[in-house]
Amino acid sequence: MDLDQKFQVSSGAHSICAAEMTFLRKVQSTECMSTFYNEAFAFAVASKDAQLQAYSSAPLDLLPTCQPKELTFAQLQGRQALLDLLTAYADSIQALMSDGNDQAFDSGSESMAKGLQSVAKQAGFTTITTNEAAGVNAAIDTITHLIVDHHEYDNVKDAASKAELPLESIVNAFKSENSNDASGIQSKLGGIKNDFRIAVLASRDHKGAASFLDIADAHAMLASMTVATDPTQLNAALDALVASNKTLASGDKTTVHQVVSNLVSEGQRAVTIYSGSK
């Protein structure tokens, strides 16, 4: 494997994990945005008591502090730690490819992996079974040990073989969560869109042609909320990471260039899609 390919394995993994974190942050921000607009709509349509001349209680905080519940900050921190472990593993593979001469991967990286191990187990995946969650935790231990003890492996094939099943377990958990999160984002954006439609219909009834300006404002606001909700590319990039490691584990030198190149391409596409949305 040439020098460029050695660095492509690490580069591809870093791109994929960066795209995953961008997506997860959008999951959080969409929940917070949905919570605000739900409260705002309830406030706007609150009924007024004719006798008391007062509106029914409908709290509205114009500058709310975001406290996501579906993907908490603690869970996000755990998933960041888990992704950092995956990139550290890719860096350790790169170090092995460089015959241990890669100065970018040193004892500091090994210490970092140990520090991430317990945090990564707080990822809080909600779409997998208890047994699968236990499998992910065991996979985290294996990946951590591979990073710390990478210098004990004589070649890339041995290390990649040891990581094959643990890496697949972790990636499958992320893929399942991504699909579920994407459905949640679509549902929340659909709810906001319906509230906006009710509002512009009311505006048309009261303002007639002048409601055109409200419609234009509603369109601009909805457009600003547009996010990449299809997890297909992100999950394809994660699959490419597994496929790349599987090829390294097999020792197949005839296809490794194609597989590693695909890893880089899929990672770059994921970064472009999920970083390019609002």
Would you write up a description of this structure?
The chain is an all-alpha fold and 278 residues long. Helix content is 74%, strand content 1%. The protein has one domain (3-32, 63-276). The longest helix is centred in the middle third of the chain and has 52 residues, at 156-207. The protein is elongated, with a radius of gyration of 24 Å. The two termini are 39 Å apart.
Task: Kindly provide the radius of gyration, computed on alpha-carbon positions and rounded to a whole number of angstroms.
Answer: 24 Å
Intertermini distance:
39 Å
What fraction of residues sit in β-strands? under 5%
**Global structural class:** mainly alpha
What overall geometry do the principal axes of the alpha carbons give? elongated
**Order of strands across the biggest sheet?**
1-2
Average pLDDT taken over every residue: 90
Report helical residue fraction. over 70%
Low-confidence stretches: none
Largest sheet: 2 strands, antiparallel
Q: Number of helix segments?
A: 8
